[in-house]
């Protein structure tokens, strides 16, 4: 077993004998929320100590790289002696190992607490890790201090390890361009023809991002919105079949992207030309994941698009951050009414009234209505009878790649 561990870590790190090694630290600390009281929970901390020491011993007793554990007050540090080689690979390896064990320990420790203790225990487990090079001649104590400090900094917020793994995953997706588009038809309710397709981003890996919503929300938190949005737009155009003269390709664009000073719409035109498409085929579907702070900047970007022949739609009307202000300020060509309004509209007078109001507003502004999330024949018949122009939903076609 130890021989297999050695071979695995040597392959992982690209180890060369004679190179300086690394010190790896896994850090665990239960911390109170700022608003918690100061009730005495020393008994529970002692219970955690016994539990953590037992779990660490069971997990790492035959682990060749494990050097031991020690406590500093109530903080636990697990020490690993790692070989030389690429630090990035070693960090990835230790991050996965640390998350696998610490997430399991936290869950099982809380599950084993009696109901009364669970009420008293108002702490969150902070877990971090670090990998520090052990340079020749450097004092062992200083190396250990630096590794512990970095592990504490990494684990200063609850969920830090999972966040690091999610960040690594999104970096990999962007670097390898591992997003693929699917297309959902938008059908004309006048003649039943396919009016266009909405391009939707998908990934093959669902471990850290179950769906595109989670992926884009995390990208926003990490400052990667622009990079992910651009990649999704490029993939949507790359995967699109030639459209008929009057068909449209609806591409999602976050409104906040247009507030970015580095936003450059010229790349989209270049891509379209490569695929023998023109701007008149494209509708930019404005999605608001947070309220728009600067309508002036967004309107300026949209005017640039419109001058080239693109059209504009506002997504999720009736839900989320989409508002009447967005409609008035941005003057879109299409309003996409959210499924929360369309679902069971044939049985809900209030939803019917809301849609009727949007239809009247759209008529006065020269805007077309698209009903999203159609899943039942009754919903389709209702929106058609009310004068909705287009519809989209599983009843009419599921998202899929072009054959």
UniProtKB/TrEMBL annotation:
<dbReference type="GO" id="GO:0071111">
    <property type="term" value="F:cyclic-guanylate-specific phosphodiesterase activity"/>
</dbReference>
<dbReference type="Pfam" id="PF00563">
    <property type="entry name" value="EAL"/>
</dbReference>
<dbReference type="InterPro" id="IPR035919">
    <property type="entry name" value="EAL_sf"/>
</dbReference>
<dbReference type="InterPro" id="IPR050706">
    <property type="entry name" value="Cyclic-di-GMP_PDE-like"/>
</dbReference>
<protein>
    <submittedName>
        <fullName>EAL domain-containing protein</fullName>
    </submittedName>
</protein>
<feature type="domain" description="EAL">
    <location>
        <begin position="163"/>
        <end position="403"/>
    </location>
</feature>
<dbReference type="InterPro" id="IPR001633">
    <property type="entry name" value="EAL_dom"/>
</dbReference>
């Amino acid at each position: 077993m130890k021989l297999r561990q050695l071979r695995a870590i040597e392959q992982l790190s690209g180890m060369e004998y004679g190179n300086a090694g690394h010190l790896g630290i896994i850090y665990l600390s239960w911390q109170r929320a700022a608003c918690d009281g100061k009730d005495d929970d020393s008994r529970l901390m002692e219970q955690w100590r016994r539990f953590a020491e037992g779990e660490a011993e069971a997990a790492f007793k035959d682990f060749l790289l494990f050097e031991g554990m020690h406590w500093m007050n109530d903080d636990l540090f697990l020490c690993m002696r790692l070989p030389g080689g690429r630090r990035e690979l070693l960090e990835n390896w230790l991050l996965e190992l640390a998350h696998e064990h610490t997430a399991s320990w936290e869950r099982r420790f809380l599950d084993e607490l009696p109901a009364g203790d669970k009420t008293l225990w108002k702490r969150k487990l902070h877990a971090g890790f670090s990998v520090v090079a052990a340079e020749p001649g450097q004092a062992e104590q200083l190396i250990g201090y630096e590794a512990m400090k970095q592990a504490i900094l990494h684990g200063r917020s609850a969920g830090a390890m999972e966040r690091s793994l999610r960040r690594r995953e999104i970096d990999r997706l962007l670097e390898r361009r591992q997003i693929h588009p699917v297309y959902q038809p938008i059908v004309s309710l006048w003649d039943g023809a396919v009016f266009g397709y909405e391009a939707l981003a998908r990934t093959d890996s669902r471990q850290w991002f179950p769906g595109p919503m989670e992926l884009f929300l995390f990208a926003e938190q990490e400052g990667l919105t622009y990079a992910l949005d651009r990649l999704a737009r490029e993939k949507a155009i790359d995967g699109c079949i030639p459209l008929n003269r009057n068909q449209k390709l609806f591409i999602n664009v976050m409104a906040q992207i247009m507030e970015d000073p580095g936003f450059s719409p010229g790349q989209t035109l270049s891509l379209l030309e490569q695929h023998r498409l023109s701007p008149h085929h494209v509708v930019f579907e404005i999605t608001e994941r947070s309220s728009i702070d600067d309508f002036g900047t967004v309107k300026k970007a949209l005017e640039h698009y419109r001058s080239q022949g693109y059209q504009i739609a506002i997504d999720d009307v009736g839900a989320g951050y989409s508002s009447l202000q967005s409609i008035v300020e941005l003057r879109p060509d299409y309003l996409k009414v959210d499924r929360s309004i369309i679902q069971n509209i044939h049985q809900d007078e209030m939803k019917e009234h809301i849609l009727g109001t949007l239809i009247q507003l759209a008529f006065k502004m020269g805007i077309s209505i698209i009903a999203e999330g159609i899943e039942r024949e009754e919903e389709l018949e209702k929106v058609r009878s009310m004068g909705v122009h287009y519809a989209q939903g599983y009843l009419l076609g599921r998202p899929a790649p072009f054959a």
